[in-house]
Amino acid sequence: MEDKMNSEIVGDTLIIKSSEEPDYAFFEKKNIRKVVFKFKIEVIGYGWFNECDIRELETPNTVVKILGSAFIYNKNLTILKLNEGLVSIGDGAFSDCDVHYFDAPSTLKEVGVYAFSHNRNLVIKNIGENLEGIGAFSFGWCTKVTSVKLNEGLLYIGDGAFKYCNIEEITIPSTVEYMGSGVFGDNPLKRVYLYEGSPISRLSKEELDKIFGSNVKYFLKGAVKTSNLNCYLNFLKHSWFNIDNVDLIIDSFISKSKIERLNAFYLETITLNNATDEQEELISLVLPNVAVINKDKDGSNNITVNIKNIGYLLYLNIGKV
Description:
Layout lengths: L6 E4 L2 E4 L17 E4 L5 E2 L11 E3 L6 E2 L12 E3 L6 E2 L11 E3 L6 E2 L11 E4 L6 E2 L21 E2 L11 E4 L5 E2 L11 E5 L9 H8 L4 E10 L2 H9 L4 E9 L5 H7 L6 E5 L3 H10 L4 E5 L7 E6 L13
Parallel strand pairs: 2-3, 4-6, 5-7, 6-8, 8-10, 9-11, 10-12, 12-13, 13-15, 14-16, 16-17, 17-18, 19-20
Antiparallel strand pairs: 1-2, 18-21, 19-21
């Protein structure tokens, strides 16, 4: 059957020969189960396949954008293969489908609002290596999502982006500048890892609770350089953060009394750079249960203290002391 929109339906297959198609071009054509593109398409149009019955989709390697609602309500769409070169997935593009795996191409930059919401069998294999933005409720109500690894370079995550998933633990990249309300709402979230000094780590506990919920524990990761050990240790004692593998770099060697203060923080290792035998012996005597590693001399004159498992504390915004 040939129609005026320069497309052809053969059996259950739609053959598209031109990008000159209007919005909702094939809306509710329930007999369409497969799509073939007979030209180099760059943009899959707005609402083109809304409420069709497509079962499997592999986007052509020329596609750059998939516009909003392009495949919404294809409730039997289970297999989705997205092409390298794809940059943007529009609002609601695959909402209320039955996609089983999301494996983003490395070129993907943006996932729109509600893009994959209500795909209840979805598992995120790879959310993207260079993703910059995740829209509001993008993966909301994807109840089989139990984990997701967010990439460095990600800038924003919208409201409720992972609402009603089943994520228990998440690490927020150091590059994230904005997170909306209830990003992980109604998840069994227990542990949130933030990088020391990152924009999100500087939020108040009240602000963080609006994002993650009030029943989570927060852990800091990263490195802190200080010339005032007393100041930093006082911060740790009055902070509500837990500490997870934070490297505390002290600019100059510390006295016996200061080393004794470290004993309260359950250190596992202390690494000495360019330390003397006497300094190493002093730490071994004061902290007998802590492993001491004396690295090769590198001229840095720094001592790196690896702090782990300090326990739950009160809030004070962390910074370079």
